[in-house]
Design goal:
heterodimer, A: mainly alpha, MetI-like fold, B: mainly alpha, 12 helices, 0% strand
Chain lengths: 314, 285
């Protein structure tokens, strides 16, 4: 397990480094330097030059990359252009909001997806199974920003059941949770479908296993067999999937934050684009990417811990 | 010729036999027909502004109503379909070409090249898609080309990996060894023996990416980072509707429902095709 963990960690570090290299290369190769992008079309040459020197862009490319690389690993992502604050600080301030949104999306997808998956596996072939199967594909297919806008239109504007915009009263946890319901639904709905399908598929396999037959022979109820004995094994493939899921939820969160006017990294990046605050954009991309890689690392380590066969595959 | 036609007809019959496939096929054909005949079906110019007619509810004259500039939404939705389909087809075709070439190189080439390419693919895959799109669009400036570049960048690693895996498996097979031993060039081995045997699953997966690409284009246009105004896109219509969602919900409905129907249609059709032609892919996807 230790060797597996170390190898997996080394791989994650390598991928983060490659992602940094790639981001740097893209910024470097794309016509138009970040200083011109930041200053806009009306900037004079002198202004551009001053900013280039300030951002260290007048140095040779390998030195630029080395500075970017070493600084980034130390948590220094440069300063943003408008207020000159460290990018890392600004991103870290907004990150908890996005994480709360993703956690909400996970709650929706797990709370609905796992029971639906179990239920359709037990009732396989029936009308409910087929209907939920189609519905699962449907919620996976529909883009999250459309879900966000229609959830807003139906539940906040028409029915007025839930608040439409903002993150809620800062001191009031209940109000904040209420404001989280719709955005996290928009983020998590697609994954209700994924998890329901995953759980159903692996549940069908597990229900055929000898120990389940034994449990049945001992006269345990269907409910006990499904939720206590079968689910604990059938859940494994889903854990691996959750790592990928969180990455996709990070993408959906960008839209949910903009539609519901919530604070968060997505809203931060969007606003940064509108104000041409380029260091902030690339910094936020790097932080979310590192987060995504870290989550996948954790998911793989958990699966490696639960299922020793996985460890030899790396 | 006759054989190919009957083969096609046969697979069409199998698709229609599945309720999901039939619904998907109808939606997809409807969407493509609407996009092709947009100019005939749309009686109004999708970009002509008429301030007197703004925010009109759906009626016989304006089937889906009008937006904040008095533009006919029905015409805009039809022309938006053209944009969505064009972006999807071009960017997936380009991703397929690049993906196949890189996959063949990685699978057939030396292992150090293979390893570094895999690392590069993993690095691209590790960016959250929308974050990467936002970063690139900022640099390129908002345009459909920028959106297509994002799509290509996001899709190529997956396609290349599939071809690479297949190539690695076929590389050591008997028929490739015999082709090599009678002096076939590397290019010929790749073109005649490896590519035709590995491209099938890739094409099915690529067809399943069409709805994803349509969603990316609509999403970027929704954020104002895709098509430039006044060109209609479903995403930009949805954004117009979102701005006025409290008073004129029909704009948001006109922009969102086509996105839902199209993504559902392509997904239903893709799922059915995959189950018919290559059930093994189910576990990989």
């Amino acid at each position: 397990m230790l060797i597996y963990s170390l190898k997996r960690l080394a791989l994650a570090v390598l991928i983060v480094s490659a992602a940094m290299f790639l981001l740097f290369t893209m910024i470097y190769l794309i016509p138009g330097d970040p200083a011109s992008v930041a200053l806009g079309p009306r900037a004079t040459d002198a202004m551009r030059e001053a900013l280039l020197i300030k951002m260290g862009l007048d140095q040779p490319v390998w030195i630029q990359f080395w500075n970017f690389f070493t600084n980034a690993w130390q948590g220094n992502l440069g300063n943003e252009i408008l207020s000159n604050r460290p990018v890392a600080d600004v991103v870290m301030e907004q990150l908890p909001w996005t994480l709360a949104l993703i956690a909400g999306g996970m709650v929706w997808s797990i709370a609905l997806g796992i029971p639906l998956g179990c239920w359709t596996a037990v009732k396989r072939g029936g009308l409910a199974d087929r209907a939920i199967g189609v519905l699962s594909i449907a919620v996976i297919a529909v883009p999250s920003f459309v879900v966000a806008i229609y959830a807003l239109l139906i539940f906040a504007v028409s029915l007025r059941w839930l608040p439409a915009i903002g993150a809620g009263d800062p001191g009031n946890l209940g109000d904040q949770l209420l404001h989280l319901v719709l955005p996290s639904l928009a983020v998590g709905l697609g994954w209700v479908g994924y998890i329901a399908r995953m759980v159903r598929a692996s549940m069908l396999e597990v229900l055929e296993a000898p120990h389940i037959r034994t449990a049945r022979a001992f006269g345990l109820t269907d409910r006990q067999i499904t939720y206590r004995y079968a689910l604990s094994i059938a859940i494994l493939p889903t854990v691996t999937l959750l790592g990928v899921g969180i990455g996709q939820m990070l993408s959906s969160a960008v839209f949910a934050e903009i539609v519901f006017a919530r604070p968060g990294v997505g809203k931060l990046v969007y606003d940064a684009i509108l104000t041409r605050n380029y260091p902030l954009v690339s910094g936020a991309v790097l932080v979310t990417t590192a987060l995504f890689i870290a989550i996948n690392l954790i998911a793989d380590l958990v699966v490696g811990y639960l299922d020793p066969r996985v460890r030899s595959r790396l | 010729m006759y054989e190919a036609a009957s083969k096609l007809l046969n697979s069409l019959r199998r698709v229609i036999a599945e309720p999901l496939g039939a619904v998907g096929l109808i939606l997809v054909i409807g969407m493509i027909a609407a996009a092709i005949f947009a100019d005939l079906l749309a009686v109004h110019d999708p970009t002509s502004i008429s301030p007197r007619d703004r925010f009109m509810e759906p009626s016989v004259a304006h089937l889906l109503g009008t937006d904040q500039l008095g533009r006919d939404l029905f015409s805009r939705v039809l022309h938006g379909g053209q944009i969505a389909l064009t972006v999807a087809l071009i960017s997936i075709a380009v991703s397929l070409i690049i993906g196949v070439v890189l996959g063949l190189i990685a699978g057939y080439g030396p292992s150090w090249l293979d390893n570094s390419m895999i690392l590069l693919f993993d690095a691209i895959k590790s960016y959250p898609t929308v974050m990467l799109a936002l970063a690139l669009v900022t640099l390129f400036g908002p345009s459909l080309t920028a959106v297509m570049i994002v799509v290509v960048l996001v899709n190529v690693p997956g396609y290349a990996r599939i071809i690479r895996t297949q190539t690695l498996a076929l590389k050591s097979s008997q028929f490739v060894a015999s082709a090599q031993s009678i002096g076939a060039s590397t290019a010929r081995v790749l073109r005649v023996h490896i590519l035709p045997n590995s491209i099938g699953p890739l094409l099915i997966l690529a067809s399943m990416d069409i709805p994803v690409v349509i969603a990316i284009e609509a999403g970027m246009s929704f954020l104002g980072l895709g098509v430039r105004p006044p060109t209609p896109s479903w995403g930009s219509i949805l954004n117009d509707g979102f701005t006025a969602i409290r008073d004129t919900p029909w704009i948001a409905i006109a922009g969102g429902v086509p996105i839902i129907l199209t993504t559902l249609g392509f997904t239903f059709l893709g799922e059915t095709l995959r189950d018919i032609f290559d059930p093994r892919l189910k576990t990989q996807a």
